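Q: Please design a sequence for this.
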């Protein structure tokens, strides 16, 4: 008897997508079709592949209101946030094309006189399994699918079980472009589906956007299979350091946005704010606390809302458990935990103060991973101590410095150990023309963004001669 899988609206529980949960034989059939599609698709010209991805951008543009509303309905994003995701998805197309042309297109290395030519070509990896997240259900899997298709791969998408309706919409949008059959397919389900898919002998690459726990599990599952390319984009315990000269109001705006945009459900959201003790320190913290208390929290239907709900009641419960653990470590709530009476996943932003805790307690805090609107602040004696505390985490995704000098920022970049390091902006600031990824427990040296194209193919080196070598190659040993 088949098992029915459903994905429902985050706000009202309305079923948005329903299908049979695939068993191992169904998943094997999907990858079998993908193998045949990959063989055909790699032979398609790059111009034709680019034409298909541009048609996808046109489809997104023509249907942006439709997909914006679906994102908002399924995962609870505020409409402005969902619309920004659609814009980023559209922009990703031309950026991926430019990245391919700049970083991964076939070329000849400084032609030499005579008959020998030195060529670099790029061969698609084959079949890529893309495991998408719920927080950017269109943009983040799309940011891997687009360069994979440009490079000539077949793709199997498993969207988040909490955002499968968006994944289905994406699949239908690609089909509308005329993309060849089975070049992009979708499987549905949760962890068990992903495990079965990763075990497929037809998998040539696995692309994850998700938690550290999920990334570690996949890394272990692929032990002994070095032929499978693995790209992990995981979470972080991202610090923002506030220098003594930072304006209090500017600090409040940048830190609160870093921590609480998208209900704190961005992997780059700030989890710790570290203030350099100075005559302005208390006014900076007071301005932050006051501004956060005034943030308007609401559902997507609330036009004035600045912070929306977390993905589910279960996510809110998990976040509350982390809050309680922070309190048990000695953190002092400056903006205490609060959930809106109207909706169990509508969590108000919370701030806790870790100043004065032991070094051991602070190490525990820096090792935690949480996904929601909660921030821990701390005070340190000077800038060097702030940089050191910011760096004392196994994660390494994003960091930001507010205030300070160019020399201080150079020190910050060199010592903070993160893949996205900003100055006088939020930790969530990213640009499509730059790489995007973390180090340490936040990634495995596969930055996405503009550089995602780099691990969608393998380089092939060729020494080419128009005629066979006439001289005896063994003459070098005579």
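A: Design:
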């Amino acid at each position: 008897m088949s098992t029915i899988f459903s994905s429902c609206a985050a706000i009202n529980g309305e079923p948005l997508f329903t299908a049979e949960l695939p068993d191992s034989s169904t998943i094997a059939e999907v990858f079998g079709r993908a193998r045949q599609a990959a063989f055909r698709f790699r032979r398609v010209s790059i111009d034709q592949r680019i034409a298909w991805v541009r048609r996808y951008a046109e489809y997104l543009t023509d249907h942006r209101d439709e997909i914006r509303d679906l994102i908002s309905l399924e995962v609870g994003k505020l409409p402005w946030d969902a619309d920004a995701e659609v814009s980023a998805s559209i922009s990703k197309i031309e950026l991926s094309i430019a990245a391919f042309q700049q970083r991964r297109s076939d070329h000849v290395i400084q032609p030499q006189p005579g008959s020998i030519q030195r060529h670099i070509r790029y061969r698609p990896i084959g079949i890529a399994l893309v495991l998408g997240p719920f927080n950017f259900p269109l943009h983040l899997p799309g940011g891997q699918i687009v360069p994979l298709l440009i490079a000539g791969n077949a793709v199997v998408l498993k969207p988040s079980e909490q955002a499968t309706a968006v994944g289905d919409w994406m699949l239908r949008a690609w089909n509308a472009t005329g993309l060849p059959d089975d070049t992009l397919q979708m499987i549905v389900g949760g962890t068990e589906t992903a495990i079965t898919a990763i075990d497929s002998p037809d998998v040539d690459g696995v692309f994850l956007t998700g938690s550290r726990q999920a990334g570690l599990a996949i890394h272990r599952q692929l032990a002994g299979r070095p032929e499978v390319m693995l790209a992990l984009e995981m979470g972080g315990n991202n610090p923002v350091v506030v220098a003594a000269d930072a304006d209090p109001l500017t600090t409040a705006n940048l830190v609160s946005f870093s921590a609480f945009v998208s209900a704190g459900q961005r992997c780059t959201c700030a989890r710790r704010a570290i203030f350099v003790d100075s005559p302005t320190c208390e006014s900076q913290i007071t301005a932050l606390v006051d501004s956060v208390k005034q943030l308007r929290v609401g559902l997507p239907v609330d036009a004035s809302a600045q912070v929306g709900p977390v993905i589910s009641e279960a996510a809110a419960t998990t976040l509350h458990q982390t809050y309680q653990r922070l309190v048990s470590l000695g953190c002092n709530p400056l903006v205490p935990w609060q959930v809106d009476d109207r909706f169990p996943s509508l969590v108000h932003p919370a701030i806790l103060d870790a100043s004065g805790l032991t070094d051991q307690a602070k190490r525990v805090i820096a090792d935690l991973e949480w996904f929601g609107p909660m921030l821990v602040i701390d005070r340190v004696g000077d800038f060097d101590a702030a940089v050191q505390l910011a760096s004392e985490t196994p994660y390494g995704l994003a960091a930001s410095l507010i205030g300070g000098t160019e020399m201080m920022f150079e020190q910050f970049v060199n010592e903070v150990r993160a893949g996205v390091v900003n100055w006088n902006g939020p930790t969530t600031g990213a640009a499509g023309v730059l790489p995007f990824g973390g180090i340490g427990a936040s990634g495995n040296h596969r930055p996405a963004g503009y550089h995602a194209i780099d691990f969608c193919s393998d380089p092939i080196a060729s020494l080419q001669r128009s005629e066979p070598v006439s001289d005896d190659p063994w003459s070098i040993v005579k």
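Q: Thanks. Anything notable?
A: The radius of gyration is 24 Å. The chain has two domains: 4-234+443-463, 238-423.
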